[in-house]
Amino acid sequence: MHSELEKKVLTRIRPLNQEREDILKMADELKDAVDKSGIARGMIVGSVARETWVSGDRDLDVFMLFETSFSKEELEEKGLGLAREIATAFDGEIVEKYAEHPYINANINGFDVDLVPCYAVLNASEIKSAVDRTPFHTRYIKNRINGFTDDVLLLKQFSKACGVYGSDQMTEGFAGYLCEIFILYYGGFSKFIEAASEWHPEIIIDLENHQAKDFNDPLVVIDPVDPRRNVAASLSATRMYEFSEFARGYLSNPSDDFFIKKEALKISQKEFSERIKLRGTSFYGIIFDTPGLIPDIIVPQLRKSVVSVTGLLERNGFTVNRADSFMGERKCILLFELLTETLPDIEKRAGPLVWDKKNSDKFISKHLGNTYSGPYISENRYYIEINRKYPSAFKLLQSDELKESGLGKHVKQSVCSNISIMKNTECWNEEFSSFLQDFIEKRSPISDLLLKKMQK
């Protein structure tokens, strides 16, 4: 049973009849176009096929199922060719994207359409690529979701309001399929929210009780059609516990606010400058051209790069309070908030243990006469005090050590071709304004919601 509040929310998020007719008509036309090609069979997958989409969503996933006799190269060539042909016939604006293999994304009559080639395998154990599994997901959910559609809609809208809806690398949250599994496993929205409010490490959800592999992820949800896959693999620990906190807040004080998606706010350059002064820290941005690949490839490389550069800064004595990254259409930024940006010219370095005669002799010979102090002994080890190589964070980030710090492959290529090191207000531009707002105003979802209520 749903509460009166949830019933009210459902009247807002259920697709209207005309909306349903429009999207299903478009889906049928695209599927028929694939069928008429004679080389593939069309199938609508995702939330539209399962009728679990929230009102206003305009995403359509059209899979083109090819016989397994096609090689991978033939699948890509014929699949892309057919997808382009169909998108062109519908006057779509075409963009080629790449996941495990290429596919076509097109804007057709206001719908965001993905035309994806895959193999028509007989069962999920025979998949040749990850996308081959998707038709099995659709069939599994369609056969079981009857009676729970409203619960899925509530969970999707609740997840959007919390900021955890989306399994892409940028969001690290819930896929629609994962939401559907949650509802089936717990038997409804309310029961799932109660369970999620008490989430802790090492939770395993296995609808089919057929787990065939161990996982070391924050949350393990065994794929009902593949016992060796964790559906929640993209969910980060941060997003998992943000959702748990949000669920606790809803149970304590349910309100419509828990189903309203947070508006993306932007910070002005002037506000950004003022907030930095209030914090008394220093902001450094490494800004470069966005590599021409999809976010699911670049975003993990950005995160890897942030970790690597943080290590470089801290090894050289610069304390990093927080760091993050953002991928824009034109530019990317690696952002670091430093508690210290300049250091004294003098640097203390530890040498070998005194009883390590061979290395001690080398250490003394190397540094004798070219230090501020030392080599000297303190307790059981030699030390020296020498001229610091990089007394400022700016000089360190401008050095070649940045490029050799362990950046992601495509990030490094872009950094090497065109890079800007920006400080404080210089880090701001319109493309980064929402990212910088979130960085400056970082709060958990429930803290953000409570603050808004206080300010009303």
Q: What do these coordinates show?
A:
Helices cover 42% and strands 21% of the residues. With 456 residues, it is of the alpha+beta class. It folds into 4 domains: 15-134, 2-Layer Sandwich (Beta Polymerase, domain 2), CATH 3.30.460.10; 149-259, Poly(a)-polymerase, middle domain, CATH 1.10.1410; 269-342 and 391-440, Alpha-Beta Plaits (2-Layer Sandwich), CATH 3.30.70; 346-387, Alpha-Beta Plaits (2-Layer Sandwich), CATH 3.30.70. The strands form 4 sheets. Strands 1-2-5-4-3 form a 5-stranded mixed beta sheet, with helices on both faces. It has a 4-stranded antiparallel beta sheet with strand order 10-11-9-15. A 3-stranded mixed beta sheet has the order 6-7-8, with helices on one face. α7 crosses α8 (189-196). The two termini are 31 Å apart. The model has no long low-confidence stretch (mean pLDDT 95).
Examine the coordinates and then state which fold CATH places here, giving the name of the CATH topology of the largest domain: Alpha-Beta Plaits
Radius of gyration: 27 Å
Q: Number of DSSP helices?
A: 17
Taken from the alpha-carbon principal axes, the silhouette is globular
Strand content: 15-25%
What number of domains? Answer: 4
- Between the first and last Cα atoms, what is the distance in angstroms? 31 Å
SSE topology:
Layout: H1 4-13, H2 17-36, E1 41-45, H3 46-50, E2 59-66, H4 72-89, E3 93-98, E4 102-108, E5 111-119, H5 134-142, H6 149-162, H7 176-186, H8 189-196, E6 203-205, E7 219-223, E8 226-230, H9 237-252, H10 269-279, E9 282-289, H11 295-315, E10 320-327, E11 331-338, E12 346-353, H12 357-367, E13 373-378, E14 381-387, H13 393-398, H14 400-403, H15 409-417, E15 419-423, H16 433-440, H17 445-455
Parallel strand pairs: 2-5, 6-7
Antiparallel strand pairs: 1-2, 3-4, 4-5, 7-8, 9-11, 9-15, 10-11, 12-14, 13-14
